[in-house]
Design goal:
This protein is 55% helix and 12% strand. The chain has helices at 17-29, 40-46, 66-75, 91-99, 112-143, 148-158, 163-170, 174-187, 193-202, and strands at 9-13, 33-37, 53-58, 82-86, 104-107.
């Protein structure tokens, strides 16, 4: 599935109503869909991981902090771009957030234009990552169509072995390798060796 910016959601988690109210207005005015939550637990109950987007997250909140929410998302393999916001920023907090994958850490007060730029970047990153994951799943489905012998030939081809060398290694004729290679190209929908190599890289065969 191919997602676009209009499909995305900006999730805002901050325990201060005034902050949620002002940022929601700002984000909506910029043309983004936004959902706001007063707590990390409330967000976890409502988050839809199937929808692309980014998370605007306060660092210090009662019950579950922003850093604890980030850890919980990572433990659940829920990979959403996170932009931290904080009125009490500490170097240790920002370092921990970045090590865990945050895309930015903004100190209050921050420029609205900077925040909106980071949100746009986060959404773009998430949409691109989802596209790559979808593409990889599609390619893996094509790979699953290959026979064990075709997989052997594919591994030799992407390891820069010529058809003649592959035939010698597999103890078959050159014509047999040619036939396998043709079927591999057809099943993987690859028009050239370069495209075949690209497919192999996308599926971690290289």
């Amino acid at each position: 599935m191919v997602f676009e910016r209009n499909d995305a959601m900006v999730y805002l988690v901050d325990d201060e109503f005034a902050v949620r109210d002002s940022l929601t207005l700002l984000i909506e005015t910029a043309g983004f869909d936004v959902q706001s939550f007063a707590s990390a637990l409330e967000f976890l109950d409502c988050y839809d991981p199937e929808r692309p987007g980014c998370l605007l997250l306060d660092v210090r909140m009662p019950e579950m902090s922003g850093l604890e929410l980030q850890k919980a998302l990572n433990e659940r393999s829920l990979d959403i771009p996170i932009i931290f916001i904080s009125g009490h920023a500490e170097v240790a907090d920002s370092a921990k957030a970045f090590r865990a994958g945050a895309i930015d850490f903004l100190e209050k007060p921050f420029e609205n234009s900077v925040l909106l730029e980071r949100i746009a970047e986060g959404i773009h990153k998430d949409i691109y990552a989802r596209f790559q994951q979808s593409l990889k799943r599609e390619i893996l489905q094509r790979l699953a169509q290959l026979t064990p012998r075709e997989m052997e030939v594919l591994r030799l081809v992407i390891s820069s072995h010529s058809n003649k060398e592959s035939a010698k290694i597999l103890k078959v004729s050159n014509r047999t390798v040619d036939a396998h290679r043709a079927r591999i190209m057809e099943k993987l929908q690859a028009d050239s060796l370069a495209e075949l190599m690209k497919i192999a890289m996308q599926c971690d065969l290289l």
